[in-house]
Amino acid sequence: MAEATTGKTVLQLRDVARSYVSGDETLHVLRDTSFSLHAGEIVALVAPSGTGKSTLLHIAGLLDRPDAGSVEIIGRDSGRLADNDRTAIRCSEIGFVYQFHHLLGEFTARENVMLPQMIAKKSQHIARERAENLLSLFGLGHRLDHLPGKLSGGEQQRVAIARALANEPSLLLADEPTGNLDVKTAATVFDELLRAARSSGLAALIATHNDELAARMDRVVTLRDGMLVEL
């Protein structure tokens, strides 16, 4: 397992709870879950499907609200802020990578990476330069003008990772980022994801079913009975 040089606390969950009602049944997905993630630290989240990994990531990324507890991003209690404030934090501080790339099919690789920067009010020139630099780092300098449909699965996911890093976030959240790729391509893309995360010094929480990939991160946590437990 790699050794991390950790810094400030980027993500702090305190006694987070989340339940869903299904018919007459209440499903307690998260119960009094607490967790800290620091700058420069990459943590694997390994747990079976249906145990609440995606719910946890959505709450940490301010896409969902907890029923109880607090979500602090860089020391700011963000879980119960107004939607506009939560959106601003997501845009500036959080990058997301999903199992499926969710690229916009009508835009080129370059444009997909420029878009979050444009939303963050960066100039077109700066956004274009950042997009081209990131895509080149991921070996896609020759694919800048290709639409997602013209890219391979591994290339699509590289563009998605570049897009997640476009606004230089403090926190990277990834939900099975290589789960839709073949074994060889998954290993290559994961290598590039780790390299990019470590060189950026950000905090990363990466959900994966792959024990070998998990072992390469700084810590491994799992969900048991709705609570995060370190392995």
UniProtKB/TrEMBL annotation:
It holds the Pfam family ABC_tran. One of its GO terms (molecular function) is ATP binding. SUPFAM superfamilies: P-loop containing nucleoside triphosphate hydrolases. PROSITE patterns: ABC_TRANSPORTER_1, ABC_TRANSPORTER_2. Residues 11-231 form the ABC transporter domain. It comes from the Bacteria. InterPro entries: AAA+_ATPase, ABC_transporter-like_ATP-bd, ABC_transporter-like_CS, ABC_transpr_LolD-like, MacB-like_ATP-bd, P-loop_NTPase. SMART domains: AAA. Keywords: ATP-binding, Nucleotide-binding, Transport. Belongs to the ABC transporter superfamily. This is ATP-binding cassette domain-containing protein. It comes from Acetobacter fallax.
